[in-house]
Amino acid sequence: MASADLTHPNAIEPDEPQPWQRFFSFSVDHKVIGIQYLVTSFFFFLIGGALATAVRVELATPEVDFVSRELYNQLFTIHATVMIFLWIVPAGAGFGNYLIPLLIGAKDMAFPKLNAIAFWMIPPAGLLLISSFFVPNGAAASGWTSYPPLSLVNGQWGELIWILSVLLLGTSSILGGINFVTTILKMRIPGMTINDMPLFCWAMLAASILILLSTPVLAGALVLLCFDLMAGTTFFNPTGGGDPIVYQHMFWFYSHPAVYIMILPLFGAISEILPVHSRKPIFGYKAIAYSSIAISLLGLVVWAHHMFTSGTPAWLRMFFMIATMIIAVPTGIKVFGWLATIWGGKLRLNSAMLFAMGFVSMFVVGGLSGVMIASVPFDIHVHDTYFIVAHLHYVLFGGSVFGLYAALYHWFPKMIGRMLNEPWGKVHFVLTFVGFNLCFLPMHYLGLMGMPRRVAEYDPQFATINNLCSIGSYILAFSTIPFLINAVYSWVAGAKAPANPWNALTLEWTVASPPPEHNFVGQPVLKTGPYDYGVAKQGAVRKPISQLKASDILSGSTR
Amino acid sequence: MQGSAVDSQQPIALESTSHGAEEHHPDLRLFGIFMFLVAEAMIFLGLFAAYLTFRSVAPTWPPVGTPKLELLLPGINTLILISSSFVIHKGDDAIRENDVKGMRLWFGITALMGAVFLVGQLYEYFHLEFGLTTNLFASTFYVLTGFHGLHVCFGLFLILAVLWRSRREGHYSNTQKFGIEAAELYWHFVDVIWIVLFGLLYLL
Asked: d(Cα A490, Cα A496) in Å, to the nearest integer?
């Protein structure tokens, strides 16, 4: 087995237990910052989840009974903003921060101080956003898209706080992106070429390119919106000669790539987790690696598929429809790569693997409905209906959140130094999987039948199915409880984790759990490629992963 | 099966360790600044694209009744800013020869030129016959030039910081010049953005 790791010079025990206070300090250690990111974003996940539950309680009946219409609008607006900007994006950055230096054999990120600054922008921005419920007229209520002119006539203070908070979070994200690109491109240990680095690094690189190229455009749009809101300009206000469509273009130029910013890090995490627990090399290393870059570049030229009903000219809709459908190709390449990876493997069905497989299957459902709504005629029919809500939750919850859970179960022992409880992890998975599908699968039907999104009251004919969705959402809300108990209990009193509990081959598993302060003593040694599971027998010469043929990996003979 | 042959196979990478010694990675700060400027450029590109869309959608541009922009003062300002890019580069040349005094001289001149540009910009603002909310053209004009002006201010701040720090003997040398290069790179960026901006707002 991986006994080599235990005798490895880097597998030293940390000198003394590290104090918990460092998590509340301006630490520049990428591992502390990574955990700060993850804990903070999980806290906001719980808040966003509470808001979502309130939305579902309201929607359990067709009438407006639980909250007022105005408060309902605020609830779903802040729910989406919190989930996107304060949970999935920073959680991806959290794993990036924790794992990238370890995976490439570096002692820290390229700019540790910048890293800490980027993190410490998040808690104030999040608290600012939540506090906007208490200003006159309440929080922003125009949806997370904040389309003008609607966003200019709803509560002014809530909207202003929303803009400031998102600007702050965007800046944090850009600073993180600078750090990731620099670290991944410039700080790999000598000998690890870009084609040898673990796929998680490729995925973070692709996501960071998108952050650098698209987030600034959103910042530009929000600054103009802020001028419209506070200074009386009319950039997006048609009454003064402005053009609200320009906002939509600028907004989606960021916010479509944002879905890849949210899913790509998890694509990377899944590409790490599946080979480890299947005991097989990843299938199609280069295909998965380069498809991340392809997704990120194609992702920049598809934004107007969110605007098929905004008077976009026919030739432009045609272009964006085709470009959007082309994205299914690199995404499909990844999915088939993952399936071929677990094909015939010795699967270890622990919580991490269950969530990883849940990720692949649920993401495929979301991906398929994505191809459906890429098609203009179909999209015009279901635009702004619950079909869209179903689709986006299948990619963002079924995709990103399942991926985040998989990554949490997989790397928790490394980060904390203690094992999570497996049976409770499985309970968590079953509850999440059942609750998720019960909540969101019926929404496809609701959308096809024409139920509009973002409305507090609806036609009574949809009552039964909405009730079903709400029950699903309660199960989903409940499902976080076993996870929370498991995580807190294991953090304090779980079984001690060995350096390499999964017999994995990437560099983070060659050091103690949790890793010592500067990760490695001296420079780590690459003895194997990242995915050489069951590859070389005694005395055999191993081919580099990039030269293996597909049939070799599928048949398991990789000598 | 799994991983059992970890020790027996050909390494795909080097087999050298340097135990104990702290590794030093090369200075990546300039690369980081460059990435930051990529992001900055995207803000401006977004705003430029918005401007061009407003322009192409509007029936007449600039909207009827917008006073014509004076070209003389902004033209001179443009010349000053473009030439300041060459001046600041002379400072970079000087520090390559380890000539801190020369660097200080050229950076000082650049700072002066930047300040003149800003004063000229403010002078133009005060003498324009339209305000921020007059019409769509006026709003985009002020937001674009104002946002660029903020960047000039920040570039000026960087140059002054270099001048301040270079008082200390040996703070900068031909091997230690990150601050100088960063300020120069930023200044060139501000300059290039202005050229596009000037073309869009005044000439197009």
From this structure: 9
Q: Residue A70: give its domain's CATH number.
A: 1.20.210.10
DSSP string, A460-484: GGGHHHHHHHHHHHHHHHHHHHHHH
Minimal CA separation from B102 to chain A, in Å: 31
B57 and chain A in contact, CB less than 8 A: yes
Over residues B10-52, the pLDDT tens digits come to 333 333 333 333 445 678 999 999 999 999 999 999 999 999 9
Could you tell me the domains of chain B?
39-203 (1.20.120.80)
Partner residues linked to A496 by β-bridges: A418
CA–CA dist A264, A177 (Å, integer): 13
Q: What does each C-alpha distance from A439 to A141, A174, A242, A359, A554 come to in angstroms?
A: 23, 34, 40, 16, 36
3 state DSSP class of A452: strand
Is any Cβ of chain A less than 8 angstroms from the Cβ of B204?
no
The H-or-E segment that residue A414 falls in is helix A402-416
DSSP, residue by residue, A259-310: HHHHHHHHHHHHHHHHHHHHTSPPS-HHHHHHHHHHHHHHGGG-GGGGGTTT
The pLDDT tens digits of the residues spanning A89-124 come to: 999 999 999 999 999 999 999 999 999 999 999 999
**The pLDDT of residue B174:** 87
DSSP letters, A435-449, are HHHHHHHHHHHHHHT
Closest CA to B108 of B161, B180, B179, B163: B163
Average pLDDT over residues A6-11: 44
The answer to whether the beta carbons of residues A178 and A117 sit under 8 Å apart is no
Chain A: nearest CA to B4, how far in angstroms? 5
How many beta-carbon pairs below 8 A join chains A and B? Answer: 195
Helix or strand holding residue A215 (H, E)? helix A199-230
Cβ-based burial of A434 (10 A; exposed 0-12, middle 13-18, buried ≥19): middle
A377: enclosing H helix or E strand: helix A376-382
Q: Is residue A205 a contact partner of residue A184, using CB atoms and an 8 Å limit?
A: yes
CB contact under 8 A, A541 and B140: no
Q: Which residue, among A528, A535, A559, would best test binding to B if mutated, counting the most B CBs under 10 Å from its CB?
A: A528
DSSP for A81-146, please give it: HIIIIIIIHHHHHHHHHHHHHHHHT-SS-S-HHHHHHHHHTHHHHHHHHHHGGGSTT-S--STTTT
- As given in the structure block, the two tokens for residue A7 are 């005798």
Residue of chain B with shortest Cα separation from A190: B14
Q: Taking CB atoms and an 8 Å cutoff, what residues of chain B touch A232?
A: 132-133
Does B196 have pLDDT greater than 70?
A: yes
**Inter-residue long-range contacts of A156-159, CB under 8 Å, 24+ positions, other chains counted:** A156/A229, A156/A230, A157/A132, A158/A74, A158/A132, A159/A229
With a CB cutoff of 8 Å and minimum separation 6, the contacts of A157 are A132, A135, A136, A137
Residues 6+ apart with CB under 8 A from A549: none
Query: Could you tell me which of A196, A352, A410 has the C-alpha nearest to residue A285?
Result: A196
Helix (H) or strand (E) holding A360: helix A351-374
For residues B104 and B89, give the distance between their C-alpha atoms in angstroms, rounded to a whole number. Answer: 12
Domain, as residue range, for A451: 3-555
Contacts of residue B26 in chain A, CB cutoff 8 Å?
Answer: 186
Residue of B59, B64, B44 lying closest to B130 (CA atoms): B64
Domains contained in chain A, number? 1
Distance, in Å, from the CA atom of A92 to the CA atom of A99, rounded to the nearest integer, reads 11
What residues form DSSP beta bridges with A418?
A496
What is the ipTM score, two decimals?
0.89
3-state secondary structure A151-210: HHHCCHHHHHHHHHHHHHHHHHHHHHHHHHHHHHHHCCCCCCCCCCCCHHHHHHHHHHHH
CA dihedral A311, A314, A316, A321 (to 10 degrees): 100
